[in-house]
Design a protein that fits this description.
Radius of gyration: 16 Å
Oligomer: single chain
Number of domains: 1
CATH class: Alpha Beta
Number of strands: 4
Order of helices and strands: HEHHHEHEHHEH
Structural class: mainly alpha
CATH topology: Rossmann fold
Strand content: 5-15%
Largest sheet: 2 strands, parallel
Strand order of the largest sheet: 1-2
Shape: globular
Length: 182
């Protein structure tokens, strides 16, 4: 978990590779659906380009599909998946149906100034429409209003590790491994 640009995708990929688990990122899945022009992609495109969060029902549907895949049988690394309390509750129910749980939550903590600088760099490299300054401002506002309360929801259940998400990729990855006892 963490704000846009906190490094969730980068660290999720590193952790997934190290643990031999697939990384599930709804943002990646939705961007792929947009690129392929699927019905889900068309539905999500306008919402994403405006910097808004895609609805809980779509996200939970994507999660149900991903968790049900054979490669997810031993677990998954969720990358920025749960963005609202209803999504957290829905994911909890979904996993419970499969006799599974969330083992740990990593919260990547980073300042707004750092986020803005990172997303501007990413926009110049990848050209992502959702990294436009206006869309980033909307995403940060949505994060604070809708996603930040999820952190409190998980903290109340235990197992949250706060990771200072500044420094090199390797330094942050080392913090992740220490937090997980790896």
């Amino acid at each position: 978990m963490g704000p846009p640009g906190a490094g969730k995708g980068t660290q999720g990929a590193i952790l997934g590779q190290a643990m031999g688990l697939p990384k599930v990122a709804t943002g990646d899945l939705l961007r792929d659906a947009v690129k392929r022009g699927t019905p889900l992609g068309r539905e999500a495109k306008a919402v994403m380009e405006a910097g808004h969060l895609v609805g809980d029902d779509i996200i939970l549907g994507v999660m149900r599909e991903e968790v049900g895949k054979p490669e997810a049988a031993k677990g998954v690394i969720f990358d920025g998946v749960v963005r609202t309390v209803p999504q957290a509750e829905g994911l909890d129910r979904l996993l419970s149906e499969k006799n599974r749980t969330v083992d740990a939550v990593l919260f990547f903590d980073v300042s707004d100034d750092e986020i803005l600088a990172r997303l501007e760099r990413r926009r110049s490299i990848e050209g992502r429409a959702d990294d436009d300054p206006a869309a980033v401002a909307t995403r940060l506002r949505a994060y604070r209003e809708q996603t930040a309360p999820v952190l409190a929801w998980y903290e109340a259940r235990g197992g949250v590790h706060r990771i200072p998400a500044v420094g090199t990729i390797e330094e942050i990855s080392a913090r992740v491994r220490r937090a997980l006892g790896k």
